[in-house]
Write a structure and sequence with these properties.
GO terms for molecular function: methyltransferase activity. Helix content is 24%, strand content 33%. It has seven helices and 13 strands. α4 links the parallel β3 and β4. The longest helix has 14 residues. It starts with a strand and ends with a strand. The structure holds S-adenosylmethionine. S-adenosylmethionine binds next to loops.
């Protein structure tokens, strides 16, 4: 930890991804909606059994896919997430990998799954290229890429999620946590940036954290995918696991890409 000039303790880490149990408490998914939605996409498009969950986080979705009969590898950059996943969501193999560029073998997966905006940690075009080139190498011809993320296009002309601090509190294991969050658009970098200040009633000092996600637009995504040999099968704003209302078993994909979440299924050309 370092301190800024005003004395506020700062960290470059991320309270939630550094504390996977807290992450799961903050974003509960008791019905495994994200995992079920991903499995539905895989089944609908006839994916083979070998799945890579990239940016797997706590391992919840990887374990769900494993439970559905798939041979799953979960990959993440965070050792804390991987350690949690191995202990709490056993079944899949868990490995460290950077989604900006990874080599987990050639033609060894039938599908890559990338949920809850993990793909948007590719900030620069070169990182997106690295991600798609790595997916292409690791997928078998005809393999699928399934992703779910924020939709950059949502922020064209809309400011409802921006520039107004939102305050949230929740209690976990007897400690009440408070977060004050500010989202803003960095147009030059084409990023959605977040500054979040955490405080807790356990006497620990406040922590300020900076995160960013690529503002990726649907037609831009189509262009990157085509350049790397992927054919887009679905690209829409819902229903999905994090839309309002949420996706329900049996529901078909939509056709618009206007809402704040984007859902993608693409196939690597044979
Ligand atoms: C919002 S979480 C989503 C986790 C999980 N997919 C889910 O839906 O619960 C994003 C995850 O991406 C991981 N991540 C961030 N940058 C990464 C990178 N460059 N390579 C691999 N994983 C990364 C984080 O450690 C974190 O676990």
């Amino acid at each position: 930890m370092t301190a800024d000039p005003s004395g506020t303790p700062m960290t470059s880490g991320n309270l939630l991804t550094d504390n996977p149990a807290l992450y799961e408490a903050r974003f509960p998914d008791p019905d495994r909606l994200a995992g079920r939605w991903a499995e539905d996409c895989l089944r609908r498009h006839g994916a083979g059994p070998r799945v890579l969950d990239l940016g797997c986080g706590t391992g919840r979705d990887a374990a769900h896919l494993h439970g559905a009969g798939r041979a799953v590898t979960g990959a993440d950059l965070s050792e804390a997430m991987l350690a949690h996943a191995r202990t709490h969501h056993p079944g899949p193999a868990y490995v460290q990998a950077d989604l900006h560029g990874f080599d987990l073998g050639e033609g060894v997966f039938d599908a890559v799954v990338c949920l809850d905006s993990s793909l948007l940690y590719c900030h620069a075009n070169a990182q997106l290229d690295g991600f798609l080139a790595s997916c292409r190498r690791t997928l078998t011809p005809g393999g699928l890429l399934v992703a779910e993320m924020r939709n950059g296009a949502y922020f064209l002309g809309r400011t409802d999620l921006l520039d107004i601090p939102t305050v949230d509190t929740f209690t976990w294991q007897g400690t009440t946590y408070r977060s004050a969050t500010n989202l803003f658009v960095d147009r030059t970098a084409q990023l959605l940036r977040r500054i979040r200040v955490w405080s807790a009633d356990d006497g620990s000092p406040p922590v300020e954290q900076h995160s960013a996600w690529r503002l990726l637009f649907p037609l831009e995504l189509r262009h990157f995918l085509a350049a790397h040999g992927f054919e887009v099968l679905d690209l829409h704003d819902g229903p999905g696991p994090r839309t309002e209302p949420a996706w329900r078993e049996g529901e078909s994909p939509g056709v618009t890409a206007d809402g704040d979440r984007l859902h993608l299924v693409a196939r690597l050309s044979a």
